[in-house]
């Protein structure tokens, strides 16, 4: 019998909160089963359809990163936005989108004075992460077990890397985190499979949205059907800060009080 | 796949630009030669440049608009997609810093014909009468060289030209009403109404926004698809591309797109003679002109003037005051996110559709001067993801889980007045762009009054979100809009231009865009920028040839010239409640 976890290590999969057992990967995680923005393509305008189709069918070919850097950042992004709840053929490419951006030297239109140019960030970022890995676990990032990799990245997320201070002196830890997370979000949540996952209706020109109130779905959208899940046991990224208004002004990477809400839903 | 609803595009043709499903601009337009001494060159065809171009062309002047970005064909070039809309924003290199660095690019800078008005959310509140005299009233900031009464006819006029949808009675500032009906509420607007009502705070429902609630001429009504800041393919949201550029082309203006102005040339007589620019292939050109108007917005306008330094103007062209680039302002734009048990689906409806200005004015009970507004925002998934990243420090599985709840969140944006400070500035960096021109370095620091105001605004916005029924409330600190950096004033020692936008130093050089603002209030600046442009145009028309020949400075204000508006956009009723 074919395993439900074909191609994905069960230990990396989200768990059922009742049994603690890993949940098999889905073709579509999230609370909107059967919802497909792509199925609505006939109601989109031609230009939008072309852009979204290309994103799904033809992710950009590697151009900027050398093979080693490609592998390195692929591994990092598997922590920043893990996708082991998705079957392998429905995982969303992240590095390819970033590679395309860097190859074209496409930026957000500004560089923080505490940051080097974007291409340099992704070059020295490898060194900085590897040095943190060496410092904490005596091994390069790629050879560490998943949880230790997670903890290396969490040190940067927390604004508290202990190694490579001469690199961080010229590159803001907070802005670095903001950039790599930003690139991950740019790629993942621009993909129609992610729209299906979160119940976003997607493009609506020329057809329009018609049910504006009370969060009701359009006739072609789907009602929410929640299920409960926990992050994998060996991950360190499940916690979020839900304090009402921590002081995130001006890019200060403060250390807020944390609350684990992993089991809430 | 089913047959596409709209079928295929018409075959692209070089002489027709679609600027909406119904509206198009037919080319060829008039072309001037570079050696022709045109009357006006306008640098930047955005919110101000579009209005100026239209007014001056209609008044019979020979006028060329040089725009760094493309002339859009909206049906082909724009998409209902966050990631696919990158081209709308100014993404040339810049450096941002200071203690509170501003995000630029998509946050506040447009590129292409229509400029920022292509990707604004289109909230169009007026400034309040108090905004023009905050130094007199509160001993902070600066007074404007004009009063509310001087700009008021232009507010009323531009509200018709865009036109603005909004309630019949708008209670704040100088109370007024809107000629076009308000929009229906989306989930975020409903939350704002609910929260405000529970706290007894008045709220404006369904506007003021420059988005059509009903069809208007060759522009269809809003379809509530939520992609306002990705450019309105529908043509319902006003941008100067659809409101003023078509009439400008029709009446003989030229727009030279993909033309990056690098330097303004000064003649021996102390008057400007034209502008140097690079075309799309990187070739350098010089366009002669009898007068130059810089409308590049609050970063590119000071950058161009600084880059145009020359003998006699070593600190920058027209910079005897030393204030070019100084007193740059952004508004506090913290986003407050609230999670609701019931779905909201905030991607439907325009992000901008309800607001309150109840806390706009100075309140003696506060420990700070001036105030703030609270407005709806409706981030789409990528933008929301970054807000969750900032507000909840979410990453990895935490981020995935929060994002699966996207449809349960509503977002309010506060809009807080940050005062003009001399150390908030645009200067030149040592880095160069692809043309070899020094790029802009933007420095931004919050001061005491700003910090106190932001804290109070954030707490009030969170209170409203809680009162609306949110079970969890978090917030992200950010900034919105850019104004100042070439401010207008009566004193040539402390300002760059006079009350009509004319350089104190050079009689045929003008600035007309958001960089004119001496202060900003907590109203979105778009309407005021266009109103000032129409006012400057009226002044230039009344002065006629004298602008081109005389160094004399006539400061007489002339009555509004409604006949210069695009046809069919005036003569309609404006309710006057006071």
UniProtKB/TrEMBL annotation, chain A:
Region (Disordered): 1-29, 238-265
EC number(s) on file: 1.-.-.-
Any one GO molecular function term: oxidoreductase activity
Protein name as annotated: Gluconate 2-dehydrogenase subunit 3 family protein
Record's keyword terms, sorted: Oxidoreductase
Keyword Cell membrane: no
Pfam families named in the record: Gluconate_2-dh3
Gene source species: Acidicapsa dinghuensis
Entry keyword Oxidoreductase: yes
Automatic annotation (TrEMBL), chain B:
The entry's keywords: FAD, Flavoprotein, Oxidoreductase
Annotated ranges, domain Glucose-methanol-choline oxidoreductase N-terminal: 108-322
Domain Glucose-methanol-choline oxidoreductase C-terminal: 422-533
Recorded superkingdom: Bacteria
Record keyword ATP-binding present: no
InterPro entries the UniProt entry points to: FAD/NAD-bd_sf, GMC_OxRdtase_N, GMC_OxRtase_C
Keyword Flavoprotein set for record: yes
Family the UniProt entry places it in: Belongs to the GMC oxidoreductase family.
PANTHER family assigned: LONG-CHAIN-ALCOHOL OXIDASE
Protein's name according to its UniProt entry: GMC family oxidoreductase
Lineage: Bacteria, Pseudomonadati, Acidobacteriota, Terriglobia, Terriglobales
